[in-house]
Design goal:
By secondary structure, the chain is mainly alpha-helical. The protein is 52% helix and 0% strand. The chain has three domains: 58 residues, lambda repressor-like DNA-binding domains (434 Repressor (Amino-terminal Domain), Orthogonal Bundle), CATH 1.10.260; 63 residues, Orthogonal Bundle (434 Repressor (Amino-terminal Domain)), CATH 1.10.260; 126 residues, 434 Repressor (Amino-terminal Domain) (Orthogonal Bundle), CATH 1.10.260.40. Helix 12 crosses helix 14.
Length: 297
């Protein structure tokens, strides 16, 4: 693991520059004077969880005094928070530190509730903690990207709404319906011929911007969307767009990085299981809640 670099000579220099004695530093850390002396002469070195309090006692920045190359793993996060492995049992409310020890050794990943509790105690996000855990298992895990300040532009025109539905509902090799197929669905929904293949193409490309309620309802049926999505209702569009992007993220394998909307934490495991089952049904050509196969293409 990329542990922080400890330099005893630098510790001594920083301590002297701060006009502190070894006894004062030892008292601040609750340790014996000879221990500080042995650190400065590098006869021994402090455990990683002692470095934050040592930096604080020396009135120095942790990253500057004890730099680290690379990204932290799970043990690094614990040490940076000043916890020994033994103390984590009190954070988790368990009889032993076994869950943390196993995760730090890359043996068994933390339960969701444990990850949330540790993230809160370590002062990091759940996403940062889960990424650090992956590094403990020997996997590359970049730092989670902060949410973008740029707000998503929700589809507004009819052409944008059709493009949005195609982009977010036909993935993983699925082929979107043709203009002719869409026209047949709309006409069947209306019970009469209300649109042609060329008319659907014009709506899709933006050459035509107006459509009757019958055509809008037919589009919703063709793309398996709620009717209000194609109606001029911005709030309904925003809600469905957000939900579709969530589903699309699951399909793209981004489940582990997703956070509950508005909550900032990891997705509820029951919700994850439900959505995974739902996506399996979709991939198998089944509509949710229907026991027979349905052609979605």
């Amino acid at each position: 693991m990329p542990s922080r670099h400890f330099d005893g000579r630098r510790v001594r220099a920083v301590r002297r520059a701060a006009d502190l004695t070894q006894s004062q530093v030892a008292k601040a850390l609750g340790i014996a004077d000879p221990t500080v002396a042995s650190w400065e002469t590098e006869q021994s070195s402090p455990d990683g969880d002692k470095l934050p309090s040592l930096a604080t006692a020396l009135r120095a920045d942790l990253d500057e005094l004890f730099p680290r190359e690379g990204l932290p793993d799970l043990a690094d996060l614990r040490c940076d928070a000043g916890y020994s492995q033994y103390q984590t049992k009190d954070i988790l409310g368990t009889k032993s530190a076994g869950p943390v020890a196993n995760a730090e050794r890359g043996v068994r990943r933390l339960q969701t509730a444990f990850a949330e509790a540790l993230a809160a105690a370590y002062g990091v996000s759940v996403q940062e903690l889960l990424a650090a855990q992956e590094r403990s298992f020997g996997n590359d895990a970049p730092l989670p990207q902060p949410p973008s300040d740029d707000r998503r532009r929700d589809p507004r025109t009819l052409s944008e709404k059709i493009s949005f539905m195609v982009e977010h509902t036909y993935q993983g090799g699925q082929t979107p319906p043709t203009d002719a197929e869409i026209a047949r669905v709309i006409n069947a929904q209306a019970g009469s011929t209300v649109v042609s293949e060329s008319s659907v193409r014009d709506l899709r490309t933006g050459a035509r911007t107006d459509a009757s309620p019958q055509i809008l309802d037919g589009l919703a049926a063709a793309y398996h969307a709620p009717p209000q999505f194609f109606r001029p209702d911005d709030e309904a569009v925003r809600e469905l767009a957000a939900n579709l992007e969530l589903i699309a993220s699951f399909r793209c394998g981004e489940v582990g990085n997703m956070a509950t909307r508005g909550g900032g934490g990891a997705l509820n495991t029951r919700l994850v299981s439900f959505l995974n089952d739902l996506l399996d049904d979709i991939e198998d050509g089944k509509l949710p809640g229907v026991g027979t196969d349905t052609d979605l293409d």
